[in-house]
Design a protein that fits this description.
Blueprint lengths: L10 H16 L25 E9 L3 H8 L5 H14 L4 E11 L4 H18 L2 E9 L9 E12 L14 E6 L8 H7 L6 E2 L2 E2 H5 L7 H10 L2 E6 L4 H5 L8 E6 L7 H10 L3 H5 L6 E7 L4 H7 L4 E8 L4 E4 L1
Parallel strand pairs: 2-3, 9-12
Antiparallel strand pairs: 1-4, 2-4, 5-10, 5-11, 6-7, 8-10, 9-11
Amino acid sequence: MATYKDSGVDKEEGYQTVSKIKKAVSETHNANVLNGIGSFGAFYELSGYENPVLVSGTDGVGTKLRIALDSNIYDTIGIDCFAMCANDILCHGAKPLFFLDYLACGKLDSDVAAQIVLGIAKACKETGTALIGGETAEMPGMYQIGDYDVAGFCVGVVERNEIIDGSQIKENQAIIGLPSSGFHSNGFSLVRKIFTNFNEIFEEKPLYETLLIPTRLYQNDIFKIREKYKVYGIAHITGGGLIENVPRIIPDGLCAEINTKKIDVPTIISELQKRGNITEKEMFGTFNMGVGMVIIVDKENVAGILNLIERSMLLGEIKKDKEKIRLIF
């Protein structure tokens, strides 16, 4: 007599996963969450806003997962998953309200799955975001045993009159970069092509430890800045680097002129460029190069912001031009 387990799906392992994450997930909930794990849908009450606009984003971890899986380190990629989504909606001034995750694998290991979700819960707790739901899909034949894919979906809120969309950016405003924690979660197909031994020692520790440093969460930085200063545009520097992401917020007729020499490039990124003999244009069109977020502000507020956010950088200014970005090397 055939069973579902005979086909490669172990429901009991799924139940074990829920048991291992339930406490941490519930600790991310607040009074706005109206039900718990187990319902077909999650309820979140929206209150305390005058004219709220919901802002949503979805993303995954990409092939950075390969390094995590091969190194048997699973607790950081959940943070990456959350950060990639939450940092995106933050670009419009939205505070994350709740998050849902999707985890797919060939054969479920409850210990591995729990570590991934606990990483997500950690990031949610740090930012006051409720982890209100998720899906764990065991799909033998679609994924190899030991392989996992991780994605997420974030919903945030911003008052309509506080939406940041770049439309108020003007000539002579300043461009400030907020530091990244490394590669974040982009460009890892090229990273893995150049760095072939994750166990090699780099700066006195195994290379995989540096490569798996999770994506920086920028919510606290951005809201700290906005408490004191007007921010006209925010760009999350993900796949495509500065070259592709900064123009997304620049109005027609204006140009973000950025002096790349002002950027504090992490040593791991410089090492990749050297080993791969990669051009500056390719690097700045693929990786964040040490700048995880770009914000546009008035020049008179630059000094205050640089003092407020450690390692932040004045990168350049907004000028009139047909091209929306110009990098000075």
